[in-house]
Structures are given as C-alpha cells and as structure tokens.
Amino acid sequence: MAVTKxxxxxxxIEAQAPKAAEKKVAAKKTAVKKPAAKKAPAKxxxxxxxxxxVEFYGKQIIAKDVVAACEAAYKSENKAAIKSIDVYVKPxxxxxxxxxxxxxxxxxxx
Length: 110
Known about the structure:
rod-shaped, three-stranded antiparallel β-sheet, alpha+beta, single chain, 24% strand, two-stranded antiparallel sheet
C-alpha cells in the first residue's frame, strides 16, 4: 500500500506541473506592457526684471540707458561686433567710460 500512495502522489504532482507551466505562459501572454509615462517639461523660471539706478547730487542715471548709449557711441565709430563691454560710471565727472572687446575705450557725457 505504501508504494501505491507514493505513485499516486507522483502522478498528482506530475499532473499539476503542466497546469502550473500553462498558467505562467498564459500570464505572460496576457501581460500588456504599459507605455512609459511622459514627463512634464521642466518649468522655466520667470526672468527677473532688473533696474539699476545711480543717484548722485540729485541726478538719476539708469544703468541700461548708459550701456545703450555706450554701445551706440562705439557702433557709430567702429564696425566690429561687440562681444563684451565694460562700463564705468563716474558721476562726479558726469561721464561714463567704456571698454569694448577689451580693446577699444571711449567716453560719453551723461
């Protein structure tokens, strides 16, 4: 009797093995890959509005206007493109000095 119980158990295990394998295959077939989630585009930070004003002896000098005047003075005398510009405001002289492309220097009256 002991032999028959062991053979019956083996038969039961063997019968279950193909069913388990079939379930795995069926699960693989029914599994659907989800498309990758789309990432939201990075939010750009809003540009900071800058306004620099120099006050000296009751006079106001706006930095953007001084730089624009220096660029205009340079362009009126030179054809080379502006790659860099350094502006030095000297309120006591009522003037601004500029250096363009580390080569050309000039002065404008404010």
